[in-house]
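Posting for a labmate who doesn't have an account.
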Amino acid sequence: MKVYIQKHDHGMYKDLLEYPPVEYKFVQKILLDKLIYQISYPRIAALRFGIRDKKSLIHVHEALVKDKVPWVVDQCEAQLFIDSENYYKLTKHNYIRAVEKYLNSKYCKKIMPISNAAKENILAFYDIKEKDKIEVVYPAIHKEKVERREHEKIKLLFVSGNRPTNFYVKGGSEVFKAFEILDGRYDVTLTYIGLVPEDIKEKYSERENINIYPPQYSQHELFEIYKNHDIFLMPTYADCFGYVILEAISCELPVIATNMYAIPEILGEEEERGLLIDAKKLSKCPFGASTSLTKWRNWSGFVEWIKNADKTQIIKELIEKTSLLIEDSSMMEKIRRNQKKEVESGKFSIKERNKKLKRIYEEAIE
């Protein structure tokens, strides 16, 4: 079985390539296609790789394929088939129809949303003629070896990427506000990995129990950081999956996160693999519904709304859920056991993902 795949530096792909269901061959889009893309209209995420062997298969990430060979695609949200920044394009028929042409082609063998939330989102925007062509394939992650150590203080952790806006859209601002209250109640520390505004950095620079680091760590280094903390905080408003949550689960680190998009699928029932904050109480319900992004013209508009939204309830629930875990060690242990079981043998296990992907590949090139 000859399966071509794009190289990608996302953690989800690192585990796919390190623990593959088949032997992959790597492929890149051709240079000429990059030039054509710049002048195309409507401009969508359609790529050409120059593969002509019809007995082979191409597996792409968040893209469409021009080559007339069988292909499959994994996707976390409808928007990324078009443009990651300009949400208004999802309301334009010419963009929607251009994407549908590829998704409904005989060469597209499987559309693989990485969550049920993603599946709902894709079907809300695109008319997929063959409904069995779309099938959820969850990302998988390996199980990290964990030797749990007791800490003198409860160590809280927040992790985000290298976008300055993450401070607002991933809930970094709420983490600091919640910590101010928690610090008055418990013996706690906060490790914040991510970019923060200069005034925030200056405000907390002298606090011995707050450490702020830039997002400069490798995945391996992050795993060691996860294992050295007690609770992971992720009150995000803008994650179409939340792979850092899966990384925390791999390290048996109890998670408190918002119930946005696919996150309830990752954490499961309340107290199963973490605790959920009800962020859908925010008036516009960002990322909480299949078509919510079209309420903003673009990413900048969404960020501005998040900056100014009243998140008092989010902070309140973040404090309550964190306090609940701090005060209930048996709940912490139960969550850790459930996390271990899920990664080793559940829907996010390497075994389950590889079994499903191998079947999909085989069916695609029959």
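Reply:
Got it, the structure tokens are right above this. DSSP finds 14 helices and 13 strands in the chain.
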